[in-house]
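Weekly puzzle thread! Below is a chain. First person to post its structure in token form gets bragging rights.
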Amino acid sequence: MDVPGLEFEARPPSQYAFDFPDSECEGWSTDALTVRFASVRGAKHRYYRQPRQDTARAAVHEATDSIVFAVADGVSSAAESHQGAIEACRASVERILHLLDHTPGPLDPVDVAAHAAERLRQLAEWRLGATQPGTAEVARLYATTLVAGAVRPTAGGLVVELFRVGDSGAWLLNRAGGGYRPLFSSKTGSDTQLVSNEVSALPRIPARIEAATGRLEEPWTLLVGTDGFGDPLGEGDGQVGALFAQHLATPPPPLWLGHVLDFTRETFDDDRTLLAIWPRTGAESR
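Winning reply:
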């Protein structure tokens, strides 16, 4: 049986982390899609007065009615990883919007990841007052994971394109049956013999970037989340999986998603971020 974590009043983050609130949420719809996301500070950071290191961002590409998104999880060993996460999300969303303006074909994950890594390098250059800081210097300040992509309406249906750097994840939730289909390899799956805490993160770009493409159709919902959500979810067959299958059966109010995401479970005390995208039916879109 799952054991809840201890309840306590959150402590304030350090005085210069005022621009990173404990929690944030967002929600809106286009004619074809509905998006919700929430990000909450984990119990560990609430106790030790550290800012939330997770971030999510989403935007609509108005010319195509696509939803562009990014989710990032700042690496805890980096001194300013909360800054790195938000800048990686901003840079990725900006770059994907630009690519959708100018490139009719599939998204280029390397291009987007490189753009985000360059933003982190520029931030480190400003922070250190140094020209061309090395990758290790940038990583010590701003290392972050990243999942970014888009859902595009096409003549053949809704097309999903996304990629990741690091260990944040993505899933398809079957709202009819309650099952979760991972879109990337899992570090906690039943076929995993050993769990590693080592993370390959921006500004380093792996030789092979993990990418996934497919269709978003009923009764599926696209989920993108940091490991603060993915680790307690596991394979989706426990209480956490059942909780989110219930509350994501239809798009919840954004504040309610934040409330549900802020569940308590012993040993799972990381920041949690979850972005969800639902296809809209004909009746909903009218």
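Puzzle host: Confirmed. Bonus trivia for everyone else. The first strand starts at residue 23 and ends at 29.
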